[in-house]
Amino acid sequence: MKQFVRNLVSAPLFERLIIGIILVNGIILGMETSPDLMRQYGDLFYLANHLILGVFILEAALKMIALAPDISRYFKDGWNLFDFSVIIFSLIPATGEFAMIARLARLLRVVRLISTIPELRLIVSTLVRSIPSMLHVMTLMGVIFYIYAITGYQLFHEHDPTHWRSLGISLLTLFRVVTLEDWTDVMYKAMELHPFAWMYFVSFVVLGTFVVVNLFIAVVINNLDEAKAERLAELQGPVTQKEILKDLRDTQTALKRLEERLERTSESGSQSSARLEKGFN
Question: What integer best gives the mean pLDDT of the chain?
Answer without folding.
Answer: 79
